[in-house]
Amino acid sequence: MRRKVIYSPENQPSPGTNPITRMTKLKLCLRLLWHRKLTLCVCGAILFILLNWYMQSESFLIEEFKFPVPPTTMSRQEKGKFSPEDIEVMRKKSLSKQESQVYVNYMADNFVINFTVIQNSARTCIKKFSIYNAGQSNIPSFFWAIYFYDNGKVGHNSFPYPRGLPVDNSELLIFHEAGNLYRLSPTEKFSPYINSRDTIEVPYESYGPHVSRHYSFPNWFVSCDICSPRILKSTAGEDLSFVETFSKPQQLKRGSRDLYRAFTAKDRFSRNSAAAKAPKPSVHSVIPTPLRVDAGGEESLVVTPSDWVVSTKDFVEEASLLAEKLHLKLAKSATSKVITFSQGKVNLPKNSSLSVSEAYHIYINPSKNTIEVTANEASGAFYATQTLLSLTEKDRSDTSKEKGHRFPGMNITDAPRFEYRGLMLDVSRNFVQKATVLKLLDLMATYKVNKFHFHLTDDDAWRLEIPEFPELTKYASNRCLDPSHEVCLPPSLGSGPFVNTSGSGFYTVSDYKEILRYAKSRHIEVIPEIDVPGHARSAIQAMELRYRRTKNSMYRLIDPDDRSRYLSAQSYTDDAVNPCVDGTYQFFKVILRNLHELHKDIQPLTFYMLGGDEVAGGAWEKSPACADLKQKHELRDYHDLKKFFFKRMMEELRQEDLTFGLWGDAVLDKSLNPNPLEEAMKGKVYTYSWSNVWEWKRGSLAYKLANAGYKVVMSPATYFYFDQPYEPDFEERGLYWATRCLDSRTAFSFVPDHLYWNRGRTQDGGEMTDEILCTGGCPPLTQPQNIRGIQADLWTETIRTPQHLHYMLFPRFLAFAERAWHKASWEDLTDVAQRDKEQQKDWERFAAILGQGELKRLESEGVEYRLDPPGARFSNSILEINTIFPGLPTEYSLNQGASWEKYNPKITTKLSNAGKILVRSSSFDGKRKSRVVSVENSN
Ligand SMILES: *[C@@H]1O[C@H](CO)[C@@H](O)[C@H](O)[C@H]1NC(C)=O
Ligand SMILES: *[C@@H]1O[C@H](CO)[C@@H](O)[C@H](O)[C@H]1NC(C)=O
Ligand SMILES: *[C@@H]1O[C@H](CO)[C@@H](O)[C@H](O)[C@H]1NC(C)=O
Ligand SMILES: *[C@@H]1O[C@H](CO)[C@@H](O)[C@H](O)[C@H]1NC(C)=O
């Protein structure tokens, strides 16, 4: 039997009465009755019977013993039979530390969480979790607390609720800890014990729909005031099996108008079907696609380590890299069997905006047995090396036989369309180990991506050692449960109560320098970001700790008298540094000095990212320091203060050759138009246009910023936010505030030069109309030279392991790299139908290269790229399977997964058994499999 432990007023003692006084009252009453003689005897008898009944009733017992807490091993039938000594021991207020810990441990091991969604709507979600005592023991309900992270704002209509948010009528309260970390605790009136097989139900409402498993976070934990926390086992680890598998539309859809539904195998089959017919990729193919390839017939040459050499005067490092990878020696000069690197002019098409400094030319000449590389600058030579390495990978089996590398005869003339080809990595939400970062830099270099935007800080942690401020890393790089506020920040994003998860970690000075050196040798510029004024809770808390310890307020980042109330996008109430106190600017001078010092001898700092996104409305409103400043400078509101802040930051931090970066929304005024940029700052400020949802009037932001004189890097969330899911599926990882469907094909289709052609779909998955598209206006681009490039952004809220990181980034990062480097011929076609057709053809070419080479190459580099589930259908009882990247192996199972057969399209046996057949795709080495999907043989 499951029982809801819900407080009901009848079984609760009324405070202030006790059985002793009641007995005295009874005696008085009887004496009174005696005086009224026999006329009242009848009444007395009735009273006696009632009293007798009452004294044997449960409510009386509860009153008498007050906290009838059974020993842990006692079954429910025996309750009330234990001795007063037992009871005394068990009284909730006198539970010793040790005993409480026993119960906390018991709860962690035996309390099973079951989480589900009851109803989504576009704005809110009603959800519920149950806590089930699956163990054998009845335990006292002492002052436990269960901590959980919910990505919505729990009780969003009731913020703030310092005394707790009541859960139904259950005498349970939810408290807002920090950000989206919440704590569930019983009140004093809560049922005094939780028995074996009891279930506690916790329904609540939060902001924003919850439609996938990975929108839930693991590592819920239980603790008490005097206990050490313990992770609830049923929520531990990465499988998130405590989240019920949703099946109802109101669980899977974001609202009643949501048109998205999970792809079926059949849907996928038709999505993939065109690409399946794509021809085998050419031996000349390289990703990203070079500007110009002149293939020279069938001839090829083989570079063998025994007799080939690499020769260079000008680009020693780049040439050495190639020599190292191909196991060749460096030599002064040679006339044959030589790869030469020389500095020289690369002839590019006239009047193009191509990035000349990165251009290169490769001439592979089989008749002379030479490869000649020409480049304007070292970066061009580096990309030539990457291209040659990419060509060697085309036929691995061949090379092993010949102990060399075969190259087709050809000429390549290449240069990127954009000087800025970036990847942003958020290492605050979850820490990314140095080794994973280095690997990522390698992969960026392989695909010719040259800017590493390093999001080093956010609300949830600070990740870079600044020796002058040890609090930043000794304290604010850790996440754990810490009532003392001295050890770590709160455990947001499912990082659990201890510091040994991806919630905690930082780069030491030497780690950071190693990353810089590694990036530099791969021609990647590292752009550090210390996000302010919003998203800065980690810095604020660290500097408050420093202030508490030193009593020196020099570097405080807040106005201590600020009584403003606000809620950030991730539900922080205290994450905006104050623009009106000097400490803020003093602090950043130190930070920037340290950054200059770190970069100095490796890669001098020329680009510093200030952040500036999502400052919560309401910040600084009740700050006396800001009231003064507003008066002094005639500033009206939050927008003016923000403007003031960035102006002063840039003035204070400005140096020759330093460019500043800002998220696009940092410079917007009330009506979403960019603040004018001072003449002196033109060309010195890069902005990132990210929030491109047309319905939110933000879609045209990139053009507005460019027209206002800001340089612009486009990182449109619906195309290049690789924290968003690949498919609108319950099992897909990722947040979905921008889109539910961002696969490699989507990223591939972005047209940077024609912003308004990137229509996509509405938030609900509907058709995009011109009206919706232009809700924020569709101004033409008047300053095209200000569009400097594109960037993929990887936020890590749901990314806790290197596997998650690879899954979210690859393979779609290759599609991004293709767009960043190569402008396809279809991109300028004005006829939509023709453009779509040409784009589809180009996609098929690209998909074939991935399926028949590039994915294998990723695999050999140890990249655990996402395996797209296959498409499948039955046609006349013949099973047909295809994949988004033709060439990827697939498998099927006729016995619900007990065994798997490799799929071979040439074998077209009819399958007689009707019903569900399971299919999945596989990595080339067979070690990894995609999500399993099913297809029905309905004959
Ligand atoms: C959790 O929910 C699932 C699905 O609703 C159900 O099958 C299972 O029995 C529940 N577990 C517990 C312990 O309540
Ligand atoms: C490659 O370029 C060289 C000289 O630049 C030229 O002689 C040769 O014909 C070209 N080969 C091809 C295949 O275009
Ligand atoms: C060269 O570029 C400029 C500016 O982008 C443009 O106005 C001009 O028409 C171009 N000329 C040719 C021949 O394409
Ligand atoms: C993390 O620390 C906790 C508490 O010290 C320990 O129980 C747990 O096993 C540790 N986990 C890992 C993965 O080391």
Characteristic terms for this protein:
binds 2-acetamido-2-deoxy-beta-D-glucopyranose; disordered N terminus; alpha/beta; seven-stranded mixed beta sheet; 5 domains; 939 residues; Immunoglobulin-like; eight-stranded parallel beta barrel
Give an overview in words.
The protein folds into five domains: 3-66; 92-252, Immunoglobulin-like (Sandwich); 292-414, Chitobiase, domain 2 (2-Layer Sandwich); 420-823, Alpha-Beta Barrel (TIM Barrel), CATH 3.20.20.80; 832-939, Immunoglobulins (Immunoglobulin-like, Sandwich), CATH 2.60.40. It is 28% helix and 20% strand. Bound molecules: 2-acetamido-2-deoxy-beta-D-glucopyranose (NAG) (4 copies). One 2-acetamido-2-deoxy-beta-D-glucopyranose binds next to strand 2 and strand 3. Its EC number is 3.2.1.52. Belongs to the glycosyl hydrolase 20 family. The active site is at residue 614. It holds the Pfam family Glyco_hydro_20.
Topology:
Blueprint: E1 3-4, H1 19-35, H2 41-56, H3 58-65, H4 84-90, H5 97-110, E2 111-120, E3 124-133, E4 139-140, E5 144-149, E6 165-166, E7 172-178, E8 181-186, E9 193-194, E10 198-207, E11 221-224, E12 230-231, H6 249-252, H7 265-276, E13 292-303, E14 309-312, H8 316-326, E15 329-331, E16 338-343, E17 360-365, E18 370-375, H9 378-392, H10 396-402, E19 405-414, E20 420-426, H11 434-446, E21 451-455, E22 457-458, E23 461-462, H12 470-474, H13 509-521, E24 525-532, H14 537-550, H15 582-599, E25 607-611, H16 624-633, H17 638-653, E26 659-663, E27 685-689, H18 701-707, E28 711-714, H19 717-720, H20 744-748, H21 770-773, E29 787-794, H22 802-809, H23 812-821, H24 832-860, E30 871-875, E31 878-882, E32 890-893, E33 901-902, E34 915-921, E35 933-937
This protein binds 2-acetamido-2-deoxy-beta-D-glucopyranose (NAG) (4 copies).
One 2-acetamido-2-deoxy-beta-D-glucopyranose is lined by residues 112, 114, 130, 132, 244.
